[in-house]
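From the shared-data thread, chain only:
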Amino acid sequence: MTDNGSNVKSAFKDLSWLGCSGHNLNLVLSHTFSDEDSKMEINDILQLLSVCKNIVRYVKKSRIQTKLETSVKPAVATRWNSNLRMLQSVSKNVSRLRDIANDETDKKLQRLLIDVNDQLLTEVIDILRPFDDATRMLSADKTPTLHLVIAGKVQLKKHLVAKSSDSSVGEALKSRLASKLDVYYHVQQLHKVAAVLDPRLKGSVLTESDKQAAVLELKSLVT
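Structure, as tokens:
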């Protein structure tokens, strides 16, 4: 099992190879916010991300960071769930930052904070958090997780079903994430074989045809 780099896939082409599902989840998120298709539908969220990046940059540069109980965290493209970490850190500190901006008459910080939509910030965090939970679940280093790949996708799909309480842009984000999940989060036969070996999962995450095919594959592997 490796990441999905073409050079790595080529190196293991003669072996039974699986792409890292944690890496696939990161691809889902990165393409959700970077691909141009239907990007305007989540424009408010992209603007929120930009505003939060500017706040984090300014807070660190101006040393306001030292006045906060918890640090603000930048979004780093190479770190998984980095946008979520940034949004959570801004959310935790936004009230304190507003106090600082007003007490010290920091005009620039005031201008930056005006553009923070608190309700949207909370909604986006709630939508993205299960992706972090799934990443952590699949990234365990002391227990097997191959059987959880399908279960993780099933749970994320359920989470991404639109609710009446969703805003229009929140609903658009869910739809975009669900679409990218289908494209980049790959479920292969070995994942199904692993799931069928776990009695907790085989009846809840596999269709009957998938279950039968997985059993046949398992028999072929052990004979």
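Residues 6-187 form one domain.
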